[in-house]
Amino acid sequence: MSRPWPWCAIALVAFLLALTACTKKSDTLTGPATDPPRPVPGKPWFEDVSARAGINFVHFDPITETQYIFENMGSGVAFIDYDADGWMDLFFVQDGPVRPDPGKPAPTHKLFRNNRDGTFTDVTAQVGLDVRGFGMGCAVGDFDNDGFDDLVVTYLNGVSLFHNEPDGKGGRRFVDVTARSKIVDPHWATSCGWGDIDGDGLLDLYVCNYVELDINNYPPCISPETNTPYNCPPTVFRNTAHKLFRNKGDGTFEDVTEAAGIAAPRPGPGLAVGLADLDGDGKIDIYVANDLQSAFIFHNQGNGKFKDLSVFSGASMMPTGRFMAGMGVAIGDIDGSGRPSILVSNFQDEPTMVFRNRGKMDFREWSHPSGLGPATLKTLGFGIALFDADLDGNLDVALANGHVIVNDAARRAPYRQQAQLLLGDGTGRFTEVTDSAGPFFREKVLGRGLAVGDFDNDGRPDLVYGLNGAPARLLRNATETANHWLRLDLIGDGKKSNRNAIGARVDIEVGGRTLTRFVTGGGSYLSASDRRILVGLAKAGKADQVTVTWPSGRKQEFRELAGDTGWRLSEGSDTPEKVR
Amino acid sequence: MGGGVVAYVVSRGDKRADALLACKTGRFNEVEKVLNELIARHPDDLEVRECLARGYASADRPADAEPHLTKLLEAKPQDYMYLRLRMEQYGKLNQREEEYADARRLLELDPDDKMRRKVIRLAFEVGRVDEAEKLCRAALRDEPKDRGLKLMMADIRQAQGDDKGAAEILDQLIRDDPKNYGALLSRGILYHENDRSDLAVPLLRRVFDEDPTRRRTSGTELAKALGKLGQQAEADRVLSEVRRLQDVEVFGVAVKTQPTNLDLNVRLAESLLRDGHTADGLRMLEMVLAQDPAHRGAHLALAAHYDKQGQTALAAEHRRQAGKSP
What we know:
Strand order of the largest sheet of chain A: 19-18-17-16-34
Largest sheet of chain B: none
Low-confidence stretches of chain A: 1-32
Oligomer: heterodimer
Distance between the termini of chain B: 73 Å
Largest interface: A-B, 39 and 47 residues
CATH class of the domain at 11-92 in chain B: Mainly Alpha
Strand content of chain A: 25-35%
């Protein structure tokens, strides 16, 4: 027979429960690591709007027991204004099963059209991009200067070029013109990028190749530490030269890999490429991050010829003479020097490298003093982007992180990792603000692709992350700030300059400072960012003067451009056009 | 029932005592399972936990040792030995922030000079440069002639953008000891970065020639400085040695993951031959052929090498053997 509890015992239990509840609440409120982050005025703040915006792309997870090296290398993401309406659309590259089952259709790439109200519509099939394959990277560029951006997608076994054409119904569609274009690269292609290498006003294409592999004769790798199967390092495989295709202007391309000097250095496992005029000589140079091999710094010698400056540039490896595991590349003026410096994301326990540009193709290793090196030792970086998150006029850094070894318990390197955000101070130094930048930045994810773009045209640069085997994430920049901004859409003349103005330099004089920005090709990892220049003006309501140095070499000055406005600057036209 | 409880207690007691004895006498691997069973049942048994922590630490399993040390420190937050052991585990795990935090606490518990140096280095590594400077200055007040601290201060100055301050320290160190290779290397790099490659080269060359532990780093920097001076042939010669060191390291890791993949050794050999390390490259190919006399890749690599040397008969023979390979 059970005895009823005395009232005093019930009261005691109730008191203890209440005390526990209070204690729990108190713990949650006090611990900085568990505090739900909240926006702080003036500080960068990103909100995940993927669901609200209708971005429902899910990257396929092809993971197998063999752990093929390509299974968790992710796929790229791109901001592309495919219908040229002034609103950024979003493209996602899809991979697929290692061995596709003919009975089960694999998922396709996805293109989402911007509805101009913060939402997107899936138009993949409508535009002809419902294409399958083990996709890796992408690049956006108007290779025929017709005013509409075309698309390159790289695969485990090659490259596809999609031409943006009228669909006959008032819309646009993408037509696979790879065969017609004569672009052939039957290798594992990764990142790629556009740039006019020979100054003929046409965009040429650089394609990174990673390693050569045959999945039917795949050599399984064993972890020396745990004696269990794990992801092979790239050094296990042979490499092949990367590819450079020269645009002939008639819809076809010529493979100039050998002639241009791209095949001269020892082949390396390429993962990222950035195209920019690194020494201000008016010719576009090519920086390539290789995985456990010296980076390539192809200095443009003129007439489409390149020389790899390699170690002599100071930007090809780590200071100890060790190779970087170069994953992603970002190029921009981080220190107010007016010169483009180079950032390269790196492996776990290795710093993201910062190569500060000293002019004349001479770089100083600056990872540790920049603060970026120490902050990134704890992560394995892939996508990397320079952008002005808080519109203060200084470039900041976003990183996509995640390991490649599924279970590296012995070294306690987490497979899923937090993305990172670091604020620049304009002198080449950065401070990490990851934990306070929004809920996404506290999540552990398998970050790979990363692109920057202003999808809602509010002047605040937004971010899109491509996660391996998981839904993509669109992060709206919701930073509470009174800082002003300027968005510049540069249109080259399509004759001496490519229409995309890749290779242009822009000097913005604002509030006694000169901010220098570059229109670059490639960048990040497998991804393509909004090409428009998004400039933070801090407290200034206008730019006093904007000087554009076009790829053709022509210089144009535009005075008194009002802030909080998008401007279209067309080469040869003295009148800036207000766009939004 | 009472007898059962007694039997269990006795049995547990024996088991525990035996396991602890085995653990303390260097036979941790024999009793690891038992110790884990004991701690699962009695999480507050600090003696068993300490045995596990020490056992894993000795077995070089830092990821397994650390959680036990963290639990021990929850019970005894001021325990110097536990803290020190955990700091070492964090170090092995490359968890530098955590290693730094433990080192900082250890320094507070016992202001020991060795620990102070460690804290300075770790503060610098995790990017707390100003804190590293403060600690380093304090340490130099106590030991103004200490070379290690001065070298650290030079690194700190350089990270702060004070190249001139760094140079003054390094010059003094080199005057005091012309064989201070750390200082010579740092000064050489600083000269090169400040557009005085002419002054950098002699310093870097000394390190490259005389200090094998810094050969790759000094070689990389020396090649850069020589290149800047237009001495390209010499720069390439130095760089070929750097590449050999890089290849050995990178392929060494790959070989460990695929010990039976002879193709990796062939690739390393090809790389060595390409960079002019003929003897090393040929030795490696001979090693491959000793294991697999019909290895097609090794024969082709030898054929290519002898072709380049103009030894056409030897090249033809290896090509013939490669053709016979399955």
